[in-house]
Design a protein that fits this description.
Layout (H helix, E strand, L loop, with lengths): L1 H27 L5 H6 L5 H11 L5 H13 L13 H36 L4 H15 L2 H15 L12 H9 L3 H38 L2 H8 L4 H39 L4 H11 L2 H29 L1 H5 L1
């Protein structure tokens, strides 16, 4: 297992280099002059030329790429053009909100998806199976922004049960406050995150439920399940302890990969619910053509996605020895 972990960690190095080069190359293709955007329409050609020299925009691409690698090796993501602050500090102040939203959405998607998938498989052909698969089809088909607006209109505007926008206290702080005798802080955070997390989780829950149903149906036909029934074990025990444990093996990697998809989907959800995370920051950075900030955000998302894949692979190898021996 140790050799497998080391091998997977070493693979991260060329992967990170590739992500940096691709990110840098994509931003070279962005049309327009950042110096002209920064100085505004009143700027003279001389002012724009001076700023381009100051920012190093006149250097050849390979010089800029080398300088960017050198910065990253020193933990420097650059400096935002418009916010006049280090990119790492700006991203650090926002990334917690996005990860919190993605984690809660992943928990909701996993609980809903596994529960509905197991129910549909155990009751194959019944009304429960039909309704579950219909809901799964709706969840896959609905765009996240449309579902977000629908949830906001129903639960925030019409019923007034949940807040429409904003964020309560960060979840770790809210949990500490609840343990200190102020449960209303945690309750307020839960109320604020519920609608954006549901909107974000719906697609993943639908995918997981369909996958769990298919995997469970295959496992339920295996000989060891029939043997368990023949021994007189009760159905809940056979389903949970024997069938579900084996059926979740192929689902585990999908659940991990959905975390990356949830981070990407969070960009739209954060805009709809005014959630102060990387999604809102991405939108403002793109609209202002703040290239250092865009580079930092894209690179952060890519690295998080790579790390999530690594964790998923390690967990999968832990539960299935054939992966690390193969």
């Amino acid at each position: 297992m140790l050799a497998y972990v080391i091998r997977r960690l070493l693979l991260l190095i060329p992967m990170a280099v590739g992500m940096i080069v691709v990110t840098f190359g994509l931003l070279l293709l962005v049309p327009g002059d950042p110096a002209a955007v920064l100085l505004g329409p009143e700027a003279s050609p001389e002012m724009i030329a001076n700023l381009r020299r100051t920012l190093g925009l006149d250097d050849p691409w390979y010089v800029r790429l080398g300088a960017y690698f050198w910065q990253l090796l020193h933990g420097d993501l650059g400096r935002s053009i418009f916010q006049s602050a280090p990119v790492s500090e700006i991203i650090g102040g926002r990334i917690g909100a996005t990860i919190e939203l993605a984690v809660v959405a992943l928990l909701l998607a996993t609980i809903l998806g596994v529960t509905l998938g197991v129910l549909a498989a155990v009751r194959q052909g019944s009304l429960i199976d039909t309704v579950t698969m219909l809901l799964a089809q709706l969840g896959v088909s609905m765009p996240v922004y449309w579902l977000g607006l629908l949830l906001m209109l129903g639960f925030a505007v019409q019923l007034n049960w949940l807040p429409a926008i904003g964020r309560g206290a960060p979840m770790p702080e809210a949990i500490v406050a609840a343990l200190s005798g102020r449960p209303q802080v945690l309750w307020d955070s839960i109320l604020h995150i519920l609608l954006p997390a549901l909107a974000l989780a719906a697609n993943s829950a639908a995918i997981i439920s369909r996958l769990v149903r298919t995997s469970m149906l295959e496992v339920l036909r295996e000989d060891f399940v029939r043997t368990a029934y023949a021994k007189g074990l009760r159905r809940p025990r056979v389903v949970v302890r024997h069938a579900l444990r084996n059926a979740l093996l192929p689902v585990l990697s999908v659940i991990g990969l959905r975390f990356g998809a949830l981070l990407g989907g969070a960009v739209l959800v954060e805009m709809i619910f005014a959630w102060p995370g990387l999604g809102q920051l991405t939108f403002s950075a793109v609209s202002q053509r703040d290239l250092p900030l865009i580079q930092g955000i894209v690179l952060t998302f890519a690295l998080i996605f790579a790390l999530v894949n690594l964790v998923v692979d390690l967990l999968y190898a832990l539960v299935d020895p054939r992966v690390r021996l193969g």
